[in-house]
Design goal:
The complex is a heterodimer of chains A (about 325) and B (about 270). Chain A is an alpha/beta fold. Helices cover about 35% and strands about 30% of the residues of chain A. Chain A is built from 11 helices and 13 strands. In chain A, helix 4 packs parallel to helix 6 and helix 9 crosses helix 11. Chain B starts with a helix and ends in a 9-residue tail after the last helix. Classes of the chains: A alpha/beta (about 325), B mainly alpha (about 270).
C-alpha cells in the first residue's frame, strides 16, 4: 500500500507578461497577457510506507514545488496527490499532523524565542501529551546534541544548530512521513553526518517514510535505496540507486598496484599513476573474478581493489547528456 | 470543542509573541504613548473645529466626542488582534506563509499572532477613556439595554473595520501587493469615521453606508443611541442592527480569505 500517491501532477505559475518599450512598467501592470511557467509537468510516482526516496534534479527542476504540493502548501494546477488517505491542500490540518517538514532554506521555529520555547510550542500545537513531550525532547536533545543551545534564541543559532532544532521540532509529534528539502545545505561534514544518522535511525526504529531532496548525493547514497530523478518538471528516472548506476555507468574499475602491466584481455587501461593502473571493464561481459585471476596469474601485484562508480559522477553524466 | 481549541491555540501563540516582544524589553510604554499621541492629534483637530463653529452638522462637543470615542474604541479593539495584517504583503511574498500551512492551526491565527504591536493598546486605551468621559456627558439615557447595545456596537464596529481589512488582505494571494488598498481603507475610516455622516451630503452618505460600510462602525449606532434617528436617511433599525452587520461582514470576509488562500504561490525557493 503506497502512503504517498502522486498522479499526473502539474503546477503552473502565471505572471503578467512583461511589456517592452515605452511605459513598459505601466503596460505590464495593465496587461492581461500572461506568461506561464510549468514548474511541474505531469509527474507520477508512489512511495511505500517506510521507504526513503531521494527526490533529485538540477536547479529549477521542480523539486521544491512538488514538495510544496505534497505538504499542502500549494494547490496543484491539475493532477492528484494523496498522502495517507488525505488530499493535503484540502485536509490541511489533518495532513499536518501526519507529516514533518524541514526546509533547509527556511526555519519553522520562533525566531525571537529560545529553541526550548519553539519545541514546547510545537508540542502544544500538536497536542503531544506532556509525558510524551518530555520523553521526546530528552531523546532529541541527546541524539541531536541540542543541549548547549536549547536556551539560545533561534535567531542566534548557527545554521547547523538551527537545522537540528528544526528537525527536532518536525519530529516531536511522531509524524509517520518526513519531507526534507535540502536539509544539509550549507552544513559542515560533521553536522551533515549527524543529520543523516538521525534520519536513518528514525526510519529504522519507527519506520518513518522519508522524501528527501538534496544536491549532496552523499545524503542519498547513505540514506536512500530509491531515486526519483526529475528534470524540467518531468520524471527522468524512477528506480533503485544500484539500477541507475548499472544503466548509466555500467563500467567498474579495477585498480592494481603493480610493476609493469601493458594490457589485459576484457579490460581497458584508462589511467596510470605512481605504479598504479586503472582498468575499466564491464562486469556483464568480463566477470570481476575472472579478470582478477588473469591479472594475478601474469603480474606481481601488491595491492588491488574494485571501484564502484559514484552516484555523483553518474548524475553528473545524466545532467551532461541531456544537453 | 473546536472553538475552545481555537481559543487555546490563539492564547498560546499570542503569549509566545508577547514573550518575543519582551526579549527587547521595555518598549511597552513608549508604544502606548505613541498610539495615544497619534490619536490625540486627531482629537485636537476636531476640538479646534468645534471651538470655531460650535457645532458640526448639528452635533455639539459631547455628541462628537461620543462618536469619536466609539469609533476609536472599535478601531483599537480591532487593531489589538488584527494589526499584523499590515504585514500580509511580506508574509506572502517572502513565503513565510508556507509554515502556517503545514501546522494543524488556522493559518490566519498564526499570521495574526506572528508579533504583537503594543501601540494598539494606546489606541484602545485612548478610545476607552474618551468613550467613558463622553458617555457621561452625552445626552443618552443609560438604561442597561443602552449600555449593552453600546458594548455590542463597539464589537460590531471592530468587526466591520476588521472585515474590510481582512477582505482587502485576502487579495494578496492573487495581487501580491495590497498595502496601498489597505492604507486607503484605513484613511477612509480615520478621515470620515469621526464625523456625523450627513455633513458629507446624501450621495457620500449612501456610499459610505452601502458601498463602503463605514456608517455601521460608529455613526449609525451613535445616532440611535443619541436619539437622533430623525436625521438618518435610512431606517433606524439599520442602526440597531449595526452589530449584526459586523458579524455578517466578518463571516463573509473570513470565507473570502479562506477561498483566496488557494491562490497562494509561495516563493521561488
Ligand atoms: N512561487 C513561484 N512563482 C513563480 N515561479 C516559481 C515559483 N516557485 C518556483 N518557481 C519556478 O518553478 C521552477 C521550479 O522551481 P523549484 O523551486 O521547484 O525548483 P527546485 O527543483 O526546487 O530547484 P532547486 O534545486 O534550485 O531548489 C523554477 O523555474 C522556478 O523559477
Ligand atoms: Mg528547491
Amino acid at each position: 500500500m503506497p502512503v504517498i500517491e502522486v498522479a499526473d501532477l502539474v503546477k503552473e505559475f502565471r505572471r503578467p507578461k512583461r511589456q517592452e518599450g515605452s511605459f513598459a512598467g505601466l503596460r505590464t501592470l495593465l496587461t492581461r497577457e500572461q506568461t506561464v511557467k510549468r514548474a511541474v509537468d505531469g509527474i507520477s510516482f508512489q512511495v511505500a510506507r517506510g521507504e526513503m526516496v531521494g527526490y533529485l534534479g538540477p536547479n529549477g527542476a521542480g523539486k521544491s514545488t512538488t514538495i510544496k504540493m505534497l505538504t499542502g502548501i500549494l494547490v496543484p494546477t491539475s493532477g492528484t496527490v494523496r498522502v495517507a488517505g488525505t488530499v493535503p491542500w484540502r485536509d490541511r490540518a489533518r495532513n499536518a499532523r501526519q507529516i514533518g517538514v524541514v526546509f533547509g532554506q527556511r526555519s519553522q521555529l520562533w525566531w525571537d524565542l529560545p529553541l526550548r520555547d519553539s519545541l514546547w510550542l510545537t508540542g502544544r500545537l500538536y497536542d503531544v501529551p506532556t509525558a510524551r513531550f518530555e520523553e521526546k525532547r530528552r531523546q532529541f536533545t541527546k541524539v541531536l546534541d541540542l543541549g548547549s543551545f536549547l536556551d539560545t534564541p533561534v535567531r542566534q543559532l548557527s545554521l547547523g544548530q538551527r537545522m537540528r532544532g528544526d528537525l527536532a521540532a518536525a519530529m516531536l509529534y511522531d509524524p509517520s512521513i518526513l519531507y526534507l528539502d535540502e536539509p544539509t545545505v550549507g552544513l559542515d561534514v560533521v553536522a551533515k553526518e549527524r543529520i543523516r544518522a538521525f534520519v536513518g535511525e528514525l526510519n529504522r526504529e519507527s519506520g518513518t517514510t522519508v522524501v528527501l531532496t538534496t544536491h549532496d548525493l552523499d545524503d542519498v547514497e547513505e540514506l536512500c535505496d530509491r531515486i526519483v530523478l526529475i528534470d524540467h518538471g518531468k520524471v527522468a528516472y524512477d528506480g533503485a540507486v544500484a539500477e541507475l548506476k548499472t544503466r548509466y555507468a555500467p563500467h567498474r574499475e579495477l585498480v592494481v598496484q603493480t610493476d609493469a602491466l601493458e594490457s589485459v584481455e576484457g579490460a581497458e587501461v584508462v589511467r596510470r599513476e605512481e605504479g598504479k593502473v586503472w582498468l575499466r571493464f564491464d562486469p556483464a561481459r568480463t566477470p570481476p573474478a575472472a579478470l582478477v585471476a588473469s591479472v594475478l596469474a601474469r603480474h606481481e601485484v601488491t595491492d588491488l581493489s574494485i571501484v564502484e562508480p559514484e552516484l555523483e559522477s553518474v548524475i553528473h553524466r545524466i545532467y551532461a547528456d541531456r544537453g | 470543542m473546536r472553538a475552545l481549541r481555537g481559543l487555546r491555540v490563539y492564547l498560546l501563540l499570542a503569549g509566545a509573541a508577547f514573550r518575543a516582544e519582551f526579549q527587547y524589553r521595555g518598549n511597552l510604554f513608549i508604544n502606548i504613548i505613541g498610539g495615544l499621541f497619534y490619536q490625540g492629534v486627531g482629537l485636537a483637530f476636531i476640538w479646534a473645529v468645534l471651538d470655531r463653529f460650535g457645532q458640526v452638522g448639528g452635533w455639539g462637543l459631547p455628541e462628537i466626542a461620543f462618536l469619536y470615542g466609539l469609533r476609536l474604541t472599535a478601531h483599537g479593539l480591532w487593531l489589538l488582534p488584527g494589526h499584523q495584517l499590515v504585514h500580509v504583503d511580506e508574509v506572502v511574498i517572502e513565503g513565510e506563509y508556507d509554515r502556517y500551512l503545514v501546522r494543524p492551526v488556522s493559518p490566519l491565527v498564526q499570521l495574526l499572532t506572528r508579533r504583537v504591536r503594543l501601540s494598539s493598546l494606546g489606541d484602545l486605551a485612548g478610545g476607552v477613556v474618551l468613550l467613558s468621559i463622553a458617555s457621561a456627558s452625552a445626552p443618552v439615557d443609560w438604561t442597561p439595554g443602552a449600555v449593552g447595545f453600546l458594548l455590542l456596537a463597539v464589537l460590531g464596529g471592530a468587526l466591520v473595520e476588521g472585515a474590510l481589512q481582512l477582505a482587502a488582505s485576502a487579495l494578496v494571494f492573487r495581487m501580491k501587493k495590497v498595502s496601498p488598498i489597505k492604507f486607503a481603507i484605513d484613511m477612509i475610516f480615520s478621515d470620515f469615521g469621526n464625523y456625523p455622516l450627513k455633513i458629507f451630503g446624501s450621495a457620500a452618505g449612501f456610499g459610505l453606508t452601502f458601498v463602503f460600510p463605514l456608517a455601521f462602525v460608529a455613526y449609525l449606532p451613535a445616532t440611535v443611541l443619541l436619539d437622533r434617528e430623525d436625521e438618518l436617511a435610512v431606517p433606524a433599525w439599520l442602526g440597531w442592527g449595526a452589530p449584526a452587520v459586523g458579524v455578517l461582514l466578518m463571516y463573509a470576509a473570513y470565507r473570502f480569505w479562506e477561498r483566496q488562500t488557494r491562490h497562494y504561490e509561495s516563493s521561488g525557493h
